[in-house]
Structures are given as structure tokens and as C-alpha cells.
């Protein structure tokens, strides 16, 4: 938002210079992007009075002017402006004056008549940037001979601020003035308005057909207005400095009220409204044609304002072309509405930028709606004339204040602990009073307060503490060291220990750690996790970062796509961080879970002359994941089970278990997602939930047997769908009391089994702690194991 310093000083004018004022705006929590001093380039332009005006004898379009400029000599000027006439005060550039683009005024002879200057329009002065043949007409009280720069008060500081989503009060001159008044201990800003008497009885009934949502609507009819009038100079100047000046007087009035008090208003043609106004949800695939947005396809989530035949407008002042006003409009409907933020977000998904929706999204003060309507009515009547009708009002709830009364307890002991500085209790009460908080209860240890209506961002105790400190001034808080009793211990938390070991290991294996936003693209996330609802942000950084992540995978994929587009053909990345899901059983309905995830893509090795490069595969990643888990758990407890995962390849994906407890997943990226992201065909991901990994038992140290090992190999035929892990389980169960190492060393698909069976080569390595095993003992154990496999899995022993 941009505004001029003089406009702000009309509301609050402390006895401080411009630099101090700007610093106070920053101290109040509002960021200033820039401050530009506006000083017009024209020189020598003064106020003059036309004392004689008659037609030029040689031209019907020109007039000869006799002009009084407060000096002995009366100027003779030739002018072609249509509004040039006797006894009006005008802006004149005398000989030697300089206008826009360094245009210098010289003595000229026009059609045989001497011209000693020039009568100016705003365009010639370089103001308002709209060309017009009309010269400037000044009020009768304008002093003849005065410098126009001084008379117009054009020298001003133009301040541009950047409003954060938690400070909706900074989106208006009124909101900033309130802060400056509090900082300088001035009187509270009071709103004064002369309420106009109602001259007509016409009004439209208002109906709300939306359940369980906050809606507040005010509106009135104003008849016999003349919209074909010029915007007054005082309003033009302020809006020009704000970059909001329009040729349309109604747009200027709405923008003026918006910037000054932060209240969006809308105006449509009252003659085009049939019978009543209904507020309801739109129909699916309904259309709205407007001047700003040629064709908007609506749906059941879009709020609309309609009459009995058509949609009039939707939030954001997006009016139907059929009800837009023009210079011939004589009857207007002026309205103000407060809507639930959900409606705003639904429309923002349809359109890109909308200034009015931004105000609704940040939060407006419903207590100012009626005032804004009356304020705009006064401006319209003053500038355009007309007759005022009664105000129609409709509120979704019984209470006219739709903002819930937020009673917040401020613990004074907590205040002192957080700040590290003592502020007198009386001063805290004084600041809260000046900020217009309502103090309900005053106790020794706490205060119970209600924030003002325009501070919708004040939700918790810490918000109040921050509000008090910005008025108290952070510079007044003395530096003091924080004292805390810390107990140091060498014992680490299991998750912390696992993370330290895992991240160090992955770094040694050639992985690079990355850090991405906790916010992700909701479209990409819905493709990866189609059946899981994610948390959407009310005020996202952008549409691509408007959803809380359910997994670390979207951020990893985005990083791989970014690097792949820059010709990186070998990538190994990992990330650790929290992910967020909806869980009604948790505090605030949000479950926060810590994950470790990684991604590999492209070639295994960098390009070299010695060996042929190969692409990364499933087992490269599986080996890394196994190695990470083996840092804290026995390999025998880790199991990978083939499973279909939506974002992964159906034939190359697995869930990971430790002691039959699900702890993660891994696999190749789904071909559909791979094609959509334009990724390499060898992209594989893993993700481990550190919250689910069980605490590992302590490793036991034992002596290595001094007796020799004995190995036996067998080959068995088994059905193709039987996993090797099932065979291992049966063997381990049989050798429960024996130290036996079992390993798969060969897989073969015989041609004579109709592809229904596979042949597995399995090795058994025996080693006893107390003796050398004899041949018959080993044979008996192998025979018993084979018999168990036959009974459980119906295997066939190959000879």
C-alpha cells in the first residue's frame, strides 16, 4: 500500500519530523519498502484570474484572455480550452516558466496576437497522467499570484509499506494512525461523521441462504446521482500518490474509502437489480461475465450475490457486466459485506490477483462496515449529488459483531519470563488501554482481555505480549544474559542418535542433504497421495506452496527436477524434517511426525574413462536403506514386503518393517508421475518414519567361536509367488537354538516347470561355540529343515 505523509498527518499529527515518523511506523510492526519525496518538476507556475475573455478574430477555437496575476501588468494570453471564461481563477505559466518534460514557456505570436504565457491543465503540470483540454479551475478563495506548488501542497513523502498477513490494520491510513497515536501517547483516533437524513424509502430486501458461515451485509440505494463529474482535486492528489487514480468518480470514491479506513465497498446499478438480493452458493459450472475477468466458471464453493434472475457480483467486487455502472447511471446501490475467509480462498483459486479479496483475506473490521457505508454516502452526495435511501442490513448471526469475542488470559509471570525485563503493571494497563483492548479482569498474576475488533490476528497470549512490546519499544528493554539450569548428559535420545548416525552414513555414501519448505504444491501432493486430506494454509506464500506436506517426497522430487533441468545426471539427496497430517485425536487436530527420506536418480557413477556407467536401480537404494537401519537394528529384524504404493511403481515398491512393525516405504517412482515431472526413468525414493522405528536393544558382545565352520548347499523348487523371506522365517524357526547363517546365492527359473516355479540356491553355514560339528549332526539338521519347508511351503528338493 502507498500513501502520502500529509494524508496520514490529517488523521494524526505528532510533533515529530518525517524520519522519526517513519521509524515509528517501522517500530509499530509495519515494514516500509520505500519512501520517495515527490517534488513536481514544473517551475514558475502561479494562480491567475481571468478578467476578460473573448473570441479570437481569426479563429473560432481560440480565445484571447486578459489575466490578473497580482502584478501591475495584466497578461495577454491566447488559449483554446473549452472551459475558459470570465472571472474564474486558473493556473498560469508565465514567460520563463518550465512545465513537464522541461518544456519552457516563451513569448509567442498566435494568429497575429501576442501570447505572454499559458493556461495549464493537470497534464501540462505532469500530474495525474490523464490528458484533457480543460484548464484547471481553482476555488474562488485561491490567492492571485500564489505559487501553485505551495497552494496545492504537492511536496510530500510517498510511503510504500508491505503489510504482513497478521497485520490487517496496516492496510489503511486509519490503522497506521492508531498505532502512531498510541506510540506518541496522543488521544485515541475518533471517527466523526454527519449522518445524512433519508430522502427516499426505496430499499432491497436481503436474504442469506448459506449455513454455518459468517456473513454480514449492509446496502442502500442512492437515486438521482450524476456520475459524469470530475474527481475533486483533493481526492485526485491523494489517490495519485497511491497509484489508484481512475477516470471514474465512483472508482475513486471506493478507493479513497478503502485506503483511508480499510473497508472494501461495492457499487452497482440499482435499476438493474430485480426485487431483492440473495446471498447463496453458486451452481456448478455457472458463468459470470465481468469487465475485469471476461469469463469465470463458478462452482458450488463460490459465494454469489444475486437477484431473482441473475448473479449480480461475487466477492472481490467482481461485478456482472449487466449491472456495471457508467456515466449515464442515475441510481446506484452501495453495499458493504463481511464474509468468512473460506469464501475468499475459494475465489482466489479461480483468479490471480484481486485487491479487494486481499483485504477480506487479511481480515476487515465488521464494526466499521456501517461507518464506511455512511462515509462513502457523504462523499457521493457531496460530489455527485443524489437522494439517500435507508440502509438494509442482514447478519448471519444474531450478534452484529461477527468476530468472536476472544477472551485471552495474560499471565504476568510468563510475560516477565519471556521478556526478561520488568515493565510496571500500571504501564502495561496503560498501553492496553491506548491500544483499545477491553480489560475484563485484573488479578495479581494475570489479566483477562479482549482485543479490539480490527486486530483479528490477536489469538493467543504471546500476541498480546508482542503488541505491548512494540509500543513499549524494544530498544527500552535492557540486555540481560539468559540464566537457565542445564543438565548435560552423554545419553542421547534414540531418534536423535539414529538421525546423527543415518545422516552421517548417507553423507559418506555420497548423498547430499537438502532443506525444503514444509509447504508444498497441493496438486502434486494430491497426485502422490490421492486418498489423504492435507492441511491447507489460509495465507500461503504462493499457490504452489499452499499445503502442509504429508511427506518429504514432494520436496525431494522438486529438487531433482530442478537439478535435472540443469543437466545433472547423477543425484543422491536426502532430507530430514517434520510432516503434518490431519488427526482429530491430536492437539489442534494436527499430527506432527519426524521423517528421514532420500532420493536417487540417474547414473550410479560420474562419467569416467575406466568403466562403463550404469543407471541406479532398486537394489542400490535398498542396500542404502538396509545399511542405515543396520546402524541401530539387527539385519535379521528388517524386512521388505512388496506392496502397492500410489506414488510408486506397482511392481517396484515395498513397505519396510522392523519386527513386523511398519516403519517406512521405498521404490521406483510411478511411471505416470515420472512422465508428468519429466524425470529420468531411474528415480527411486525411500522414506522412514522415525516415530515408528522401535528402540533397538543393546548389542551383546560375545566371543567368536574357535571351532571351524561347515557349509551345506541345497537347491529347492518353490512357487514363484513365495518370498525368500518366508523361507528364511521357517528355517530360522527350525534352527532356533543353533547358530546358523542362511543365505540365498542363486535364483533360477527352469524351463520344464511352465514358469510356475523357481529354483533357489540356499547356503547354510554352521558353527558351534563348544565343539566341531560332525557330519551326521549337520545332515540331520539339513534334513529336518528341508522337511519343515516341505510341510509349510510344499517345496521340492532338487538333486
From TrEMBL:
UniProt domain B5: residue ranges: 403-479
Species per Swiss-Prot/TrEMBL record: Buchnera aphidicola
Keywords, ordered alphabetically: Aminoacyl-tRNA synthetase, ATP-binding, Cytoplasm, Ligase, Magnesium, Metal-binding, Nucleotide-binding, Protein biosynthesis, RNA-binding, tRNA-binding
Residues where Mg(2+) binds: 457, 463, 467
Protein name from the UniProt record: Phenylalanine--tRNA ligase beta subunit
GO cellular component, one term: phenylalanine-tRNA ligase complex
Keyword RNA-binding assigned: yes
Domain FDX-ACB: 705-798
Subunit note: Tetramer of two alpha and two beta subunits.
Cofactor note: Binds 2 magnesium ions per tetramer.
One example of a Gene Ontology biological process annotation: phenylalanyl-tRNA aminoacylation
Ranges for domain TRNA-binding: 39-149
Subcellular location: Cytoplasm
Gene Ontology MF terms: ATP binding; magnesium ion binding; phenylalanine-tRNA ligase activity; tRNA binding
EC number, as in UniProt: 6.1.1.20
KW Protein transport (keyword) present: no
Superkingdom of this protein's organism: Bacteria
Amino acid at each position: 500500500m502507498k500513501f502520502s505523509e500529509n494524508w496520514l498527518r490529517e488523521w494524526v499529527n505528532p510533533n515529530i519530523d518525517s524520519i522519526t515518523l517513519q521509524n515509528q511506523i517501522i517500530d509499530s510492526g509495519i515494514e516500509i519498502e520505500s519512501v520517495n519525496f515527490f517534488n513536481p518538476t514544473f517551475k514558475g507556475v502561479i494562480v491567475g484570474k481571468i478578467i476578460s475573455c473573448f473570441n479570437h478574430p481569426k479563429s473560432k477555437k481560440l480565445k484571447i484572455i486578459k489575466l490578473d496575476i497580482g502584478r501591475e501588468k495584466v497578461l495577454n494570453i491566447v488559449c483554446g480550452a473549452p472551459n475558459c471564461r470570465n472571472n474564474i481563477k486558473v493556473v498560469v505559466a508565465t514567460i520563463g516558466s518550465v512545465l513537464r518534460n522541461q518544456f519552457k514557456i516563451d513569448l509567442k505570436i498566435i494568429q497575429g496576437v501576442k501570447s505572454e504565457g499559458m493556461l495549464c491543465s493537470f497534464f501540462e503540470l505532469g500530474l495525474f497522467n490523464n490528458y484533457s483540454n480543460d484548464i484547471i479551475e481553482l476555488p474562488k478563495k485561491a490567492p492571485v499570484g500564489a505559487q501553485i506548488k505551495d497552494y496545492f501542497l504537492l511536496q510530500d513523502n510517498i510511503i510504500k509499506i508491505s503489510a504482513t498477513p497478521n497485520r490487517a490494520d496496516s492496510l489503511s491510513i486509519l490503522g497506521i494512525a492508531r498505532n502512531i497515536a498510541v506510540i506518541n501517547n496522543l488521544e485515541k483516533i475518533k471517527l466523526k461523521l454527519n449522518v445524512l437524513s433519508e430522502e427516499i424509502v426505496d430499499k432491497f430486501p436481503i436474504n442469506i441462504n448459506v449455513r454455518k458461515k459468517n456473513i454480514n451485509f449492509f446496502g442502500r440505494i442512492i437515486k438521482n446521482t450524476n456520475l459524469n463529474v470530475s474527481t475533486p482535486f483533493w481526492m485526485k492528489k491523494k489517490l495519485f500518490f497511491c497509484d489508484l487514480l481512475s477516470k471514474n468518480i465512483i472508482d475513486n470514491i471506493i478507493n479513497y474509502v478503502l485506503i483511508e479506513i480499510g473497508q472494501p465497498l461495492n457499487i452497482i446499478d440499482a435499476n438493474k437489480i430485480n426485487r431483492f438480493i440473495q446471498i447463496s452458493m453458486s451452481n456448478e459450472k455457472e458463468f459470470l461475465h465481468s469487465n475485469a475477468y471476461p469469463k469465470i466458471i463458478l462452482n458450488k464453493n463460490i459465494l454469489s450475490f444475486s437477484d431473482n434472475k441473475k448473479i449480480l457480483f461475487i466477492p472481490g467486487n467482481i461485478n456482472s457486466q449487466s449491472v456495471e455502472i457508467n456515466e449515464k447511471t442515475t441510481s446506484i446501490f452501495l453495499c458493504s459485506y463481511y464474509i468468512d475467509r473460506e469464501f475468499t480462498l475459494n475465489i482466489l483459486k479461480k483468479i490471480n490477483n484481486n485487491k479487494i479479496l486481499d483485504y477480506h483475506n487479511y481480515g476487515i473490521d465488521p464494526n466499521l462496515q456501517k461507518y464506511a457505508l455512511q462515509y462513502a454516502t457523504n462523499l457521493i452526495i457531496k460530489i455527485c449529488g443524489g437522494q439517500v435511501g435507508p440502509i438494509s442490513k442482514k447478519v448471519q448471526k444474531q450478534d452484529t459483531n461477527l468476530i468472536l469475542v476472544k477472551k485471552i488470559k495474560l499471565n504476568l509471570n510468563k510475560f516477565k519470563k519471556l521478556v526478561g525485563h520488568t515493565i510496571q503493571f500500571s504501564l502495561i494497563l496503560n498501553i492496553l488501554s491506548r491500544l483499545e483492548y477491553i480489560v475484563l479482569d485484573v488479578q495479581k498474576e494475570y489479566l483477562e482481555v479482549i482485543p479490539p475488533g480490527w486486530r483479528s490476528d490477536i489469538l493467543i497470549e504471546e500476541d498480546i505480549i508482542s503488541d505491548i512490546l512494540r509500543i513499549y519499544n524494544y530498544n527500552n528493554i535492557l540486555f540481560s544474559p539468559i540464566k537457565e539450569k542445564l543438565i548435560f548428559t552423554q545419553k542421547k535420545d534414540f531418534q536423535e542418535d539414529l538421525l546423527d548416525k543415518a545422516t552421517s552414513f548417507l553423507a559418506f555414501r555420497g548423498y547430499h542433504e537438502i532443506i525444503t519448505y514444509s509447504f508444498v504444491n497441493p496438486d502434486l501432493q494430491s497426485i502422490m497421495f490421492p486418498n489423504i486430506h492435507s492441511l491447507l494454509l489460509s495465507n500461503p506464500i504462493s499457490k504452489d506452496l499452499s499445503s502442509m506436506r504429508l511427506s518429504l517426497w514432494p520436496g525431494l522430487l522438486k529438487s531433482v527436477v530442478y537439478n535435472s533441468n540443469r543437466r545433472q545426471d547423477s543425484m543422491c539427496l536426502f532430507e530430514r524434517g517434520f510432516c503434518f497430517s490431519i488427526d482429530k485425536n491430536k492437539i489442534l487436530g494436527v499430527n506432527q511426525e519426524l521423517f528421514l527420506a532420500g532420493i536417487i536418480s540417474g547414473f550410479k557413477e560420474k562419467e569416467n574413462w575406466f568403466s562403463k556407467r550404469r543407471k541406479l536401480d532398486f537394489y542400490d537404494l535398498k542396500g542404502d536403506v538396509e545399511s542405515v537401519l543396520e546402524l541401530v537394528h539387527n539385519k535379521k529384524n528388517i524386512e521388505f514386503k512388496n506392496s502397492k504404493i500410489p506414488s510408486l511403481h506397482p511392481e517396484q515398491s515395498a513397505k519396510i518393517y522392523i519386527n513386523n512393525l511398519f516403519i517406512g516405504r521405498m521404490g521406483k517412482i510411478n511411471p505416470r508421475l515420472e512422465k508428468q515431472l519429466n524425470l529420468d526413468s531411474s528415480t527411486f525414493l525411500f522414506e522412514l518414519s522415525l516415530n515408528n522405528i522401535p528402540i533397538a536393544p543393546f548389542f551383546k558382545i560375545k566371543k567368536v567361536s574357535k571351532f571351524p565352520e561347515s557349509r551345506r548347499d541345497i537347491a529347492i523348487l518353490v512357487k514363484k509367488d513365495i518370498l525368500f523371506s518366508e523361507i528364511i522365517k521357517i528355517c530360522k524357526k527350525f534352527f532356533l537354538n543353533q547358530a546358523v547363517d542362511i543365505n540365498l546365492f542363486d535364483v533360477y527359473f527352469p524351463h520344464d516347470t511352465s514358469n510356475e516355479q523357481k529354483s533357489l540356491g540356499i547356503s547354510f553355514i554352521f558353527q558351534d561355540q563348544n565343539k566341531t560339528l560332525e557330519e551326521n549332526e549337520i545332515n540331520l539338521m539339513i534334513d529336518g529343515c528341508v522337511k519343515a519347508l516341505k510341510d509349510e511351503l510344499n517345496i521340492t528338493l532338487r538333486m
